[in-house]
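This week, look over our next protein:
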Amino acid sequence: MTHFAGAFPSTRMRRNRRDAWNRALVAENALTPSDLIWPIFLTEGTGQKDEVHSMPGVFRVSPDMAAEHVAEAVSLGITAVALFPYTPMEHRDEDGTGALEADNITCRAARLLKAAHPGLGLIGDVALDTYTTHGHDGVLRDGQVHNEETVERLIIQAVNMARAGVDVVAPSDMMDGRIGTIRAALDAEGLIHTRIMSYAAKYASGFYAPFRDAVGSPTNANRPVLSDKKTYQMDPANTDEALREVALDLAEGADMVMVKPGLPYLDVLHRVRREFGAPTFVYQVSGEYSMLMAAVERGWLDHDRAMMESLMCFKRAGANGILTYFAVKAARLLKAG
């Protein structure tokens, strides 16, 4: 029998892991429903609730159904939802003009949600990709995404959302200079309380495909010259560049910043939070969700355990909040204790 006493102090790391109450006392991070932001998809029509084929358990809902759709989330303590519109191809055009309409689907849903749930935070996606026929986040000119012309349109989109009741506009387009110009436009319109959550470190990732299915965008942009988004979204090889992007957006007036995707970029999330200490969010994107759900459906992973572990990873890396399609399922577990 081996005896440790005498050679060194009897420190046993396992003692604090012995009981559930003790593990809870010494836990370094905690996850609560208020850490979770639920992305929801909107579709035209009335009385519509359709499951997204590539995202089991995720639905598109029409604006009239939105308040009912989020009611459980509100009751569980989820304090914010993020709105994304599904736009059929026949309702799109080359320049994404639907994004500029003051009564588009996002604005209509925002008004209804605010009327039904005035304390619920609304986050609106600012980008053109869900309204363009080519699926890019901006205006195409000569085969390239035109930065300045895109930003001019994003300003109109953001102001309209804020007027409709969106609390946080979230530019996800990755155009240069858009944060400062949107902030100036909001302030000029007296919308000084509207916050900006910048998709500051958004990578050109392969994990977005189910999202593009959910919003009706083409899997690949219909342009031979620009078949992906690598000219404006970040290179997955880079992390120092992410710090530069975040620094610029904070200097331009961003109130919060985001890293996207999530699990493949925990190192970036950690660096951003440590470097700036600003409110930092992370998006557990559609591909992450669908991969986990596919493994769960095949019996390869335990749903609840894998879900909660993945969410805790984001908290451990430094996230203030997490955009996740698991939000309601996770909040149920957290409420149940």
In short: The first strand starts at residue 36 and ends at 42.
